[in-house]
Amino acid sequence: MKIATYNVNGVNGRLPVLLRWLAETQPDVVCLQELKAPQEKFPEQAILDAGYTAIWHGQKSWNGVAILSRGFEIKEVCRALPGDTEDLHSRYIEAIIEGMVIGCLYLPNGNPAPGPKFDYKLRWFQRLNEHAAMLYAKGIPVILTGDYNVMPTELDVYKPERWVNDALFRPETRQAFKNLVDQGWTDAIRKLYPDQTIYTFWDYFRNAYGRDAGLRIDHFLLSPQVAPRLKAAGVDKQVRGWEKSSDHAPVWIELK
C-alpha cells in the first residue's frame, strides 16, 4: 500500500498539478492539506474521475484537509482535533482505511514568534500530542501524517542559522515534535534515511527550488503496529518544479 501526503496550497488552483501527479504515481491513499476552499467548493467530481473517493473538511480562503482513497473504503472518525471546541480551523481529519487509523493534519505555522499565533501553534501541538498518546495507547495501527510546520533537526533545514527565530524551528516547536516522537512513533523518512538531506518544501522566493534551499516539514509518524511494515519512502521532488505547483512536494511511504 502506498500512502502519500501533499500540501497542495490551494486544491482548485493547483488541480491540474494534483491530477497529473495522481495519474503518474497512483498512490492508494492521499492526505491533502491547505485546500483553501470551502466545503462546497472541493473538486469532488474531478477527484472521482481520477479514481478516488474522498472525505474533506474545507474552509474558505485557507486551511482545509482531505483524505483520498483509491479502491479502499474510508470510514471517517472525526474532522477536528479534540481538546478545544472553540477552535474552528479545519486542520485535522481522521479516518479508518483497511484497519489503519490515518490522521491527516495541518499544524499551524505560528509566525511571527513570539506572539499569539505562536501560542496557538504550541497549544495545537499539545492537543495533537495528547490525541496521539490516546491513539498510541490503543495498540492499533496508526499513521499521523501531513504538514507539521516543524523542522525537527538542523539536518532538516537549509542554513539552519537563518531560521533560529522562526516558529518552525524555535526550540519550543522542535521540543514539541520530539515529545510526540518520543511516545514511540517512528519518523518514516528518518527511519530509512537517517543521515540524508531531504526536503519537502521550497519557498517561491530567491530561486529556493533551483538552489535546493529547502525544509523538511511534511512528516509521516508510524505507530509500532505500522513501522515494521515500512519498506520504502520518498519525496516526489520533481512535482515542485512543475508549472503552477505548490511550494510543497508530495511525500510518500510504501507498506508491506
Your description of this structure?
By secondary structure, the chain is of the alpha+beta class. The protein has a single domain (2-255), classed as Endonuclease/exonuclease/phosphatase (Deoxyribonuclease I, Chain A). 23% of the residues lie in helices and 24% in strands. It is built from 6 helices and 12 strands. It has a 6-stranded mixed sheet. Strand 3 and strand 4 (65-69) form a beta hairpin. The model has no long low-confidence stretch (mean pLDDT 98). GO terms for molecular function: DNA binding; double-stranded DNA 3'-5' DNA exonuclease activity; endonuclease activity; metal ion binding. Mg(2+) binds at residues 7, 34, 147, 149, 247-248. Belongs to the DNA repair enzymes AP/ExoA family. The record marks 248 as: Interaction with DNA substrate. The record marks 218 as: Important for catalytic activity.
